[in-house]
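Duplicate of #3305? Posting structure anyway:
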């Protein structure tokens, strides 16, 4: 019976991995089509694949494949719970794909709200008190944020109808982007401000960020990797669509001021909270806030170089954070704790796992040759060139603080002797190879974007409103 159960569980995990690979394969096919022929539409313009949506779909497929292949095996103590977990992950991949491919802003909102519901069940999957509390906290705060985004979307619909845009096209993003100059400035300003608050909550930006450390700390490791690696970026990509409309209707100054303030506030909070952190999964959660604030700062700068750096940062961060959270999941199983003070000598006890975690943290610190180094360098150059040196300088000071805190905490876990003499723990080829692949991909992005160069340039033009 155990063998049959293990076989069935293995088949279900293979099905999850196949779903992620399907998303990745579809994204690769669409990348070729979009690069050669321009945007592709389907179902009466309900779905629209342009360079930006395809770039995000590539991120979803790549990070999901890595997280589901490298993360600790899903729950197998209860067959019904395991099936429920699998169904929720399949549905999450579907809604993430819909959120980036939908042309209608109302459908984008529905898809992102659906991810909130699905991930809330995944966070509380183990049904411990801490998991359930984290799930409720996540649900309440993100639902409040999404409600603000809904109100902002309704206001934008109202402005579109007042501008004479037909009802069927009043939330169609290409139509709104093309006619944004007709929208009422006051209504558009209020609507986009609410959307920044609402979708910013899903992306982990201040002030509605309090759910993030508890949620990432309690969710299964592959789910934390998906939430940190792509869900936050997908929500921010939805925000970018509204930003394009606002920049045309109001000029770039409004969104630049709003996003710069949000980014610096989030980065300051992340740096301060990292200093006193004593839980390595929460440490990675605050690192996510740090990186999402840099992505928001790139969007605020808004130049082609900044937009390219921002999109490269999304993909590089997703890969590095997937490796980090999956390694943290294996570490939690090995040591039965998430407290940094109880983990010492990891490199000596589990060399492969320790090396994977060390390299993932180095990538998150923005060191070469990883992709985040190239992205952050591009962001700094773009910021100074755009006359935002004061904001970039402030961000660099805060980054140094976060760098020191994250590096110190990780070094304490990795170095030294284990607390008790133990034989070396082996990670296993099944988990080690995907972790290595993720690190290699992240490093490759720091050297060259290769066949993705054209797609990245086109996606940057869209994100910059050009």
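Output from current build:
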């Amino acid at each position: 019976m155990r063998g049959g159960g293990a076989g069935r569980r293995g088949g279900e995990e293979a099905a999850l991995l196949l779903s992620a690979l399907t998303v990745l394969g579809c994204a690769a096919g669409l990348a070729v089509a979009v690069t050669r022929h321009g945007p592709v539409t389907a179902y009466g313009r309900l779905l629209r694949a342009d360079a930006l949506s395809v770039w995000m779909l590539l991120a979803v497929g790549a990070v999901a494949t890595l997280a589901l292949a490298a993360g600790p095996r899903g729950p197998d103590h209860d067959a019904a719970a395991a099936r429920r977990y699998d169904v929720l992950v399949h549905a999450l991949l579907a809604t993430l794909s819909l959120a980036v491919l939908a042309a209608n802003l109302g459908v984008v909102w529905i898809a992102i709200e659906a991810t909130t519901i699905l991930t809330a069940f995944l966070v509380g999957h183990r049904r411990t008190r801490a998991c359930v509390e984290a799930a409720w906290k996540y649900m309440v705060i993100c639902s409040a944020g999404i409600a603000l985004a809904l109100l902002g979307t309704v206001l934008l619909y109202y402005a579109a109808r007042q501008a004479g845009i037909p009802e069927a096209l009043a939330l169609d993003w290409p139509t709104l982007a093309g006619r944004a100059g007709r929208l009422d400035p006051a209504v558009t300003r209020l609507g986009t401000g609410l959307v920044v608050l609402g979708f910013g909550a899903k992306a982990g930006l201040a002030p509605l960020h309090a759910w993030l450390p508890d949620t990432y700390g309690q969710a299964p490791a592959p789910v934390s990797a998906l939430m940190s690696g792509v869900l936050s970026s997908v929500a921010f990509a939805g925000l970018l669509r509204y930003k394009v409309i606002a920049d045309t209707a109001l000029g770039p100054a409004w969104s630049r001021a709003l996003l710069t303030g949000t980014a610096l506030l989030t980065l300051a909070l992340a740096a301060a909270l990292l200093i006193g952190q004593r839980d390595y999964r929460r440490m990675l959660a605050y690192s996510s806030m740090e990186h999402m604030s840099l992505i928001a700062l790139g969007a605020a700068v808004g130049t082609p170089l900044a937009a390219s750096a921002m999109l490269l940062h999304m993909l590089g961060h997703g890969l590095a954070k997937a490796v980090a959270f999956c390694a943290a999941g294996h570490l939690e199983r090995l040591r039965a704790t998430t407290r940094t003070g109880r983990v010492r000598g990891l490199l000596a006890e589990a060399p492969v796992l320790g090396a994977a975690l060390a390299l993932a943290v180095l990538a998150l610190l923005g060191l070469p040759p990883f992709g985040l180094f190239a992205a952050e360098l591009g962001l700094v150059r773009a910021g100074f060139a755009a006359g935002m040196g004061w904001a970039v300088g402030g961000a660099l000071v805060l980054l140094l603080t976060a760098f020191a805190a994250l590096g110190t905490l990780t070094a304490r876990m990795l170095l030294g002797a284990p607390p008790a003499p133990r034989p070396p723990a082996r990670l296993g080829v099944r988990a080690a190879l995907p972790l290595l692949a993720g690190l290699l991909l992240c490093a490759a992005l720091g050297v060259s974007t290769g066949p993705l160069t054209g797609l990245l340039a086109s996606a940057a033009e869209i994100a910059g409103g050009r």
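Confirmed duplicate; merging threads. The two ends are 60 Å apart (CA to CA). The mean pLDDT is 92.
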